[in-house]
Amino acid sequence: MTIHAYRAELLSVGQDPRDAPDAVRHEADGLLVVEGGAVIARGAYADLAERYADVPVETLPGLVVPGFVDAHVHYPQTDRIASHGEQLLDWLDRHIFPAEKAFVDRAHADAVAAFFLDELLRNGTTSALVYPTVHEQSVDALFEAALERRMRIVSGKVLMDLGPEGLRDTVASGRAETEALIRRWRGRGRLGYAVTPRFALASTDAQLADAGALVAEHPDVLIHTHLAENVHECAAVEARFTEAADYLDVYDRFCLVTARSVFAHGIHLSDRACARLHESGAGIAVCPSSNLFLGSGFFNFGQADRHKLRLGLGTDVGAGTSFSMLYTAGLAYQAALAREERLDPFRALWLATAGSAALLHIGDKVGALEVGQEADFAVLDCAATPLLARRTREADLAERLFALQILGDDRAVARTYVLGECVWQRTQP
Ligand code: GUN
Ligand code: ZN
């Protein structure tokens, strides 16, 4: 197998810097050596150059970070991003459900999946946990397109037997299609499956129970759903599930709270729910742009950290307003500050890469550009715009990273590499 080497400034944050003071790994002049799509060596150029003297070296134009990992995003909502006027439940009815009905058409699903994945790559995102729609073929469209692009994508047919006409399954069809998809896609490329009940309000008790049973029968899958996002949603859950201690307990009663559960949002959580999340090992995909856009609230980092919750970062497009994980990290900082918490830029980078990867149980494979991991990375350009260039002129690493998060977006991604190969290259700064 051929070996390639990349010389560049390298930065990764493999662990939560709150837990590990030496989590930040930075080589100002580094060498990343890749063979067969995997990192086989990484270090200072001066230390490695001699050992790899025979290997062709390409110098990369910017700051190399691990490919971003979007821990929660909806591909069928791509064309409904920036839909005006409503909070969650009305926004779903008015804008989202009509758009998702169109995914009954496989050709439409193929076209949107292709655009969506290319948009992820343009933004430096190489792995994601993705909602499709209720339609089995919406998963096939996404997985086929991801397989072609060699991306690491986890997804699974949405279960919603209480959905509107045209966007509703049954307990039996939900199970049969989920099982068929798991059989069809298991072990292919870099794909993974997630049992995906839309949220507690969209499924009957019987379907929630069956989702729990499906997970028990397939221990390698993830569970992916929404939790405690919006006050009206929480009130409706409380009114329907009167026996449950809280929203999380609804899922718990159906065996959906496990170490492989990823809950999007978690804005309105009791300390009891946080303690239970910690005990189970389940985690939260924090989605700040969505939470601001739908008026849902600000994620409580202080409470989450007191309970040592596992966290990742998600764009939640189309409620989220950008595919950029840099921009989303910048909004996470602002959401934290709204509650008088500080999110440092290295922790924000960890959330967008290794934190999300751990949440998705792919942290051994991606997220930190360590030896043995897959060589997915983005090349960031601190001079992507005149303002970024000016602001980062004499800045140290932390200031440059923070400026990229506050001022940067897709424009700051000069190149994206998947398994060591360039799959996106910006044409001009
Ligand atoms: N809760 C249930 N469905 C959705 C969705 O599509 N987007 C968001 N943000 N929350 C949800
Ligand atoms: Zn969502």
From TrEMBL:
Pathway: Purine metabolism; guanine degradation; xanthine from guanine: step 1/1
UniProt GO MF annotations: guanine deaminase activity
TM helices/strands, residue ranges: none
Residue ranges constituting the Amidohydrolase-related domain according to the UniProt record: 63-422
InterPro entries named among the record's database cross-references: Amidohydro-rel, Guanine_deaminase, Metal-dep_hydrolase_composite, Metal_Hydrolase, Metallo-dep_hydrolases
Annotated Pfam families: Amidohydro_1 (PF01979)
Keyword DNA repair part of the UniProt annotation: no
Cofactor annotation comment: Binds 1 zinc ion per subunit.
Reaction(s) catalysed (UniProt annotation): guanine + H2O + H(+) = xanthine + NH4(+)
Function: Catalyzes the hydrolytic deamination of guanine, producing xanthine and ammonia.
Alphabetized NCBIfam families for the sequence: guan_deamin (TIGR02967), PRK09228.1 (NF006679)
Protein family according to the UniProt entry: Belongs to the metallo-dependent hydrolases superfamily. ATZ/TRZ family.
Stated name of the protein: Guanine deaminase
Organism: Novosphingobium album (ex Hu et al. 2023)
